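Action item from last week, closing it out:
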Amino acid sequence: MIIYLALLLLIFIVFWTSIARKRENENKLENTKVSYPERKNKMEELFLKEVNSGEKKKKLTHLLDEFSFSYIKTLFEEDKIPYYAEFDNTLDIWPSMKTEGNINIYILEKDYDNVMKLIEENKKGIPVVSGTE
């Protein structure tokens, strides 16, 4: 019986420690400058510059296919809206990998209302948007 209690206590300590480390890492990430791979896109570069200077970012959505990403990317670039696409280069790294659900789009919080209006005006051209957060 004592062995089971000791084992249970050990599992609890390991679990609690892992949660504490995760929270500590998240806090560190919140307070550090954003460092992403080099980008050739001016709107992504502007997004990163703004975030590094203190602007808040917001996850807009995750996309289910490359076509949706291309369409939204074009809308944002035409309207000069800074954005960042996370995992959009997955096919460059591993061509046979499926990218379904892997492209996350981030925008600046201050642009959220304009972006939602833009998406609403153009939603017929966006075949798959999985939802906003």
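Closing note: The chain has five helices and four strands.
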